[in-house]
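The pair is quoted verbatim as follows:
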Amino acid sequence: LPDFCLKARAENTIKQYRYAFNNFCKWCKKYQPAVTPLPASDFHLSMYIIHLTKNGNSATNIQSVCHAISWAHSMAGVKDPCESDLVKLVKEGAIRETSRPIIKKEPVLPEHLIRLIDIFANDNCSLADLRIACMCIVAYAGFLRFSELSQLQRQDIKIFQDHMIISRKVKLTNTNMGATFASHELILKPVQSTF
């Protein structure tokens, strides 16, 4: 039975939950016998969240800890302290306290690409410089992340007189039964080949 319960989550999720819950257990051990990790009281869990906040943990880490503690209580079949209003309020306050404002990056404009081409694709450039320029143009035109761009293979690209087609496989889901893939074709019109 425990093995099947553990298989309800991905292996890496389980590792992360165990690590976070073990840290909570270590914190509780400092204050035993008054503080127990399982079942944990909502007051003690709130104090732990405050402790994490004061020690500089990120909002994501605090949320992860709450998920881990909730998971451990669910696995043990005991009342989840994360469901209490006190813990929810303290968690929200901790997340607000530790959150940093999102600073969006400036978008890349066509003018930037023109300057990039002038620098890296001139008459005196090397093959490596041409590669950089080409990668930037393809990534920009195809809305590709670097990870997607770097995984392209020669057989994924077909170049025509007035366009280029990139056929690549994209991972959609990942289950214990295997991965599901779908093929996507990307047709780039800004490409003008010279034959």
